[in-house]
Amino acid sequence: MEKIEKEILARSVSLFNRYGLRPVTMDDIAKDLSISKKTLYKYFANKEELVRKGVNESFASISSRMLALLDYKDGNAIDMLFQMDAQICVSIEEHDPSIQFQLERYYPEVSASLEKRKREIIFRLMTENIKRGKEEGIYREELNAEIVSFLYYSRARLMLQEESFFEQSKWSITEIMREILIYHIRGIASAEGIKYLDYKLKNNS
Length: 205
What we know:
- By secondary structure, the protein is mainly α.
- Helix content is 78%, strand content 0%.
- It has helices at 3-19, 26-33, 37-43, 47-67, 77-94, 98-106, 108-136, 145-160, 163-168, 173-188, 191-202.
C-alpha cells in the first residue's frame, strides 16, 4: 500500500469516526487531505471501497491484539477472559458505537463481512479459553465449547445492537461488558473457578 493511500485511509477513518459514515463525502475527504478528487479516485473507486478498506484496516489492528491473547501466560483461563474483555472494551471505546449501526444500515455487505470476522476470532479465542480452563480445573468438564462460544458472542452482540440503550444508559460500555463477562464466567466455572473469580473480584485484580 502506497504512503498516500495509507494517509487517505487514516484521515477517512478519522472523519468517519468524528462525523459519521453517511455525512462524510468524497469531496470532504479530498478537501481535508488537500488533494484533488481525481487523485482520491485514483486510489479508491468509490466511497464504499474506502469504507470497506478503512474498516479492514481498523479491524486488523484490533484482531492482532485479540489473537495475541492465544499466547497469554500471565494467569489462568479466567484471567485471560478478563484481558479479552479489556481488549474488546478498548476497541469499542476507540470507535463511535454508532458507526456499527451506520455500517449495518448503509453498507450491509461490509458490515456482514466484518461481523463474520469478529465471530471467527471470538470463537477461536473462546474455544481455546474453554480448553485451557478445563485443563486447569476451573471450568466445568461437561462444557460444550462451541455452544458456550456462541452464547457469549450472541449475548454481547445483542447488547451492543441496542443503540437506544446506550444513549439512555447510566452505565458505561466497560461496566456493561464487565457484567456480561462475570455472568458468563459464573455459568461455566467449576467450584474452584468460582472461588478464584470471587477472590479476583474481591481484590480488584
